[in-house]
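Structure ticket #2291
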Amino acid sequence: MGLFRRFFGDGAPDGFAGALEADETVIAHTTVQGGGHLVVTSLGLWVPGPRRIGWHLVSKVKWEGVLRVVEASEASAEGPVVLLEDLPAQRFSLDDPQRVMRAISQRVEGSIRARERVESPGVWVLQRKIPGQDGFVWQARGDEGVGLEAVREAVGPLVSKLAG
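Resolution: structure written out below.
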């Protein structure tokens, strides 16, 4: 543990039970109504549980009177491209959303190095930085209702280009 953390703490809210990495920095946090905390760090978004979602797996975030977070799971790979599937949305009622929303938006957008849209069938292809690691990863995620096989076909030209 660094000297700064030893004297000043890690910046996490009182009662936060997550285990931060040694190089993980708390950027913002707020209390979740009903219990727990939402903690924005350099490595990801901590949700009640507590459980961290890496920035490269935060698929969608939207404010709808509550915070709606869609996390992606790594379903498979097509060459160097990781195919993602969205998990069901999680919703969090927050005591003070402003600072946390800004920090989440900056981190999600900051993880994206490049993006391309394949309109038919409706697939996003992203080049994203993985927090805490060197380099980047190619990811592909279909719109709602677009199956994994359609995503796989849509990224075929990119896979060929990256291999060639």
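Closing remark: The first strand starts at residue 26 and ends at 31.
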